[in-house]
Write a structure and sequence with these properties.
103 residues; Arc Repressor Mutant, subunit A; 3-stranded antiparallel beta sheet; transcription; WH_DNA-bd_sf; WH-like_DNA-bd_sf; transcription regulation
Length: 103
């Protein structure tokens, strides 16, 4: 894990907020009714829903989500035309432990 890459991903207020919202997605987003019943990606929120909450263009939000995913903080799943994101708790915990060691 690249600690600096992760810190940079968290340095943007909107990206940080997205990560916070995804901690309890049921409190911050409407149910993902278009998610197929066969999709086993509990807690996943589509890019469109996240974009709507931020008030930013979907392309901007997609870039933010990819950056958070590359940093190991999110994981994604594609179901048809929809891409869903959720927190990668293992990656977040690994980052926290690494940060404790380095600082």
């Amino acid at each position: 894990m690249d600690t600096l890459l992760t810190i940079k991903a968290l340095s943007n207020e909107t990206r940080f907020k997205i990560l916070e919202w995804l901690k309890h997605p049921e409190e911050h987003f409407d149910p993902q009714e278009h998610m197929p019943a066969s999709c086993n990606f509990k807690g996943g929120i589509c890019v469109g829903s996240i974009s709507q909450k931020t008030g930013l263009a979907q392309s901007v939000v997609s870039g933010y989500l990819v950056k958070l995913q590359k940093a190991g903080l999110l994981e994604s799943h594609r179901a048809g035309q929809w891409t869903y994101y959720r927190r990668n708790e293992e990656g977040i915990n690994r980052f926290i432990e690494q940060l404790k060691k380095e600082l």
